[in-house]
Amino acid sequence: MRNLIKSAVDIGVYYVNLRSSTAQKREKGKTVEVGRAYFETDRKHFTILDAPGHKSFVPNMIGGTAQADLAVLVISARKGEFETGFDRGGQTREHAMLAKTAGVKHLVVLINKMDDPTVMWSEARYNECKDKILPYLKKLGFNAAKDLSFMPCSGQMGQNLKEPVGPEICTWWKGGAFIPFIDALPSLNRKMDGPFLMPVVEKFKDMGTVVMGKVESGEAKKGQSLVLMPNRTPVIVDQLWSDDEEVSSVGPGENIKVKLKGIEEDDVSPGFVLCDPNNPARTARVFDAQVCQGIH
């Protein structure tokens, strides 16, 4: 991340590299895995989960969305691109639906590429994109007054991301920039006093078994004994990383990596839950579910 920031020659390049946070994406031109990047303001620490947009990697996208408190749906205002993404079978519809079914409660729709020659910061084009997608988002269950926010931007030029777009570029937008907006959102009510609970979203082998996920409740410390459900495998926390920095303890809301003692990587699967042995996640053979059928 530091190398990416150092290599940025202006704010536009910084944001492009920030979104293209893995070498795999920068080389192939699309996200394959869930990329991670981080930034801080005076008030908050943010973890960016850059989920895949390509239809071949929807499972990866679901894994990233399930860890998010806030979803940012980036759509293109460029003539033809928005229509392709939003038409039946396009990825815009599917991603919005997956975000809602994954439990994301607030969605920010960034209408990107407003600087494109086919758009030129046109208010009419911005409203056209917004008016087309808004009824679909309402149909999914998003509350337009509480859950949805729309903003224009240019990712390439960094316009309306950190600083509001200037009146010499856009005379009609008065709503402020993206990062100050999310920085001002109210803090979430975290379960600090609850038992430790972390669903596993990824796992790999690196001098031991490492699992990744978002802490949903409670705290964990280095050396602590935990249990991996549903197999009830006892494990010990060997190392902890929060945002790629090694730490001695972690709390709710953090996206972390945990190196575990007492289990092999082949014995762990995404969907397992790392939890407090005195209050483990409940298991069941029968359950009620709401099933959402996607576009087919």
Automatic annotation (TrEMBL):
The GO terms this record gives for MF are: GTP binding; GTPase activity
Report the protein name in the record. Answer: Eukaryotic peptide chain release factor GTP-binding subunit ERF3A
Domain Tr-type G: residue ranges: 1-190
InterPro entries xrefs: EFTu-like_2, P-loop_NTPase, T_Tr_GTP-bd_dom, TRAFAC_GTPase_members, Transl_B-barrel_sf
Q: Matching CDD domains, A to Z?
A: eRF3_II
Q: Does the keyword Nucleotide-binding apply?
A: yes
Q: Kindly give the Pfam families that the UniProt entry links to this protein.
A: GTP_EFTU, GTP_EFTU_D2
Alphabetized, the UniProt keywords read:
GTP-binding, Nucleotide-binding, Phosphoprotein
**What Gene3D superfamilies does the database record attribute to this sequence?**
P-loop containing nucleotide triphosphate hydrolases, Translation factors
